[in-house]
Amino acid sequence: MADLAPYRAVLASRIRSQRSYRTNFRLDLLSSFLVGLIELAEVWILFFNVDKLGGFTFAQILLVFGMADLSFSIADMVFGHCDGITTYIRMGTLDVFYLRPQPLLLQLISSDISLRRLTRAAVGLVTLGIGLSINDIDWSLSSITLLVMSQISGIAIFSALFVCAAGVQFFLINGAEMTNAFVYGGRYAASQPAAVWNRPLKVIFGFFFPMAFTAYLPALHLLGLTGPEWLPAWLAWCTPLAALWMWVCAGLSWRVGVRHYQGGGG
Amino acid sequence: MSLRLSPYYRLLMAGIRQQSTYRLAALGGLVANVTFGFLKVAVLFATVDAAGGELNGYDIGAMSAYIWLSQGLLGSINLSGRSDLANRIKEGDVAVDFLRPLSVQGAAIAQEVGGSIWSLVPRGIPSVAMGALTVGMTMPTTVLPYVLGLLSLLLGITLGATAVYVVATFGFWLIETRGVQILYMVISGFFAGLFVPIDLFPDWLRILAEATPFPAMMMYPVDILSGRADGPESFVLIAAQVGWLALTWFIGHLLTRAGRHKLEVQGG
Prior knowledge:
Low-confidence stretches of chain A: none
Number of strands of chain A: 0
Structural class of chain B: mainly alpha
Shape of chain A: globular
Radius of gyration of chain A: 19 Å
Strand content of chain A: under 5%
Oligomer: heterodimer
Mean pLDDT of chain B: 88
Number of helices of chain A: 12
Shape of chain B: globular
Order of helices and strands of chain B: HHHHHHHHHHHHH
Number of helices of chain B: 13
Low-confidence stretches of chain B: none
Number of strands of chain B: 0
């Protein structure tokens, strides 16, 4: 474990540094909490206008939202700052990372850990708790296994999405906004009742970026619903496969990106 | 001094040039806009359908116009709270800006507005065209809404820039403003009607939104361009935009002056 010591030291220093601008850190915590709350409000407003959407009631969608948001915010805490790579590339400071004898991606991940996102994960966790308690769920070993498995796979899927986006940045240079939109679009997709999607969306966010696997499919299964065309509830058991697929994409994107990188000069 | 030689005009043009350099990024932004647009189409059309085909004056065609116009404006109206100035304040480079015979506020806003106007070309117009071609949308058939809409759009873009400038000036006191910036991003997008039109909000929440400048950045131009706001109503919305613009500009001005003193105390 000795070779992990440098990462631990770096992470500890990052955590200290975040707390040094105190007002900013408190605002960070508050805004992360508000991010979670407002995302929930977006969903609630739709259900304020109609009773059911894509076959889900508001109580049922809470389960989808909670699962998606908890996975997303944990992935965001660890991998979310990978979008900072655009700044490193443009400023030429990425080259410094190459000089160190550690893998580039690991350095990038450990360059920051965003404690501020804890409050957002809390919103996801509380929503999930409410979603699990107010819905009629048939609790058994299999449903608990499914829940735990999909949460872990969900975190893996979103983490891979961040790495995918970072790899693409080597080509786009100034494209953080685009990849952000994809990552946040992915999160948005993940908390929707996927039954409302048309076929192209089912292909893109059901399977290519397997967002439906992070929350919608597991929720269908837990609630004992059957699911729409192309997205039957039994697919919920395939979330680890979806995570594996997403990491294959992430690996490819990162490798191709790093190979493409030619340095910032200087 | 003629307009062409004005340094602010040149900064506006520089903003356009800077944005137009990153073509691949603009294409990426367009792809993201459109993808997000289709997700909104799925969930908002389903909501209108579930409400029986009409919801607070939105039928499918009007909802489509809202979705694609707001997606089109996404690249132009700064709802992210990020700005170059915030970095310059953090790094201390702003001290140099104060030495120039230019208003720091005017310069920062001119450059930001330039970049935003450019974004309409590779991102705004194609997003709207894509939506119109694939999903279809209900748009006005007379000229006036487009003329007023264009004016409202320019006001919205400028208002976005003046508000983001205010956010950046907090840096004189906070140094690191990422917290404020994210707070701004979250609240501005929601109240500007980026995810759901504010007419679908419950009354209390809509009133709360109207008490902020954010609907004036995006919702008002979209309402005017799509013909949702009729003639007289358009003028009211535009007047509100001008009011918000003056207010945010004034606050930015006050904060700049106070911030400059703070900077001198720190050793500028």
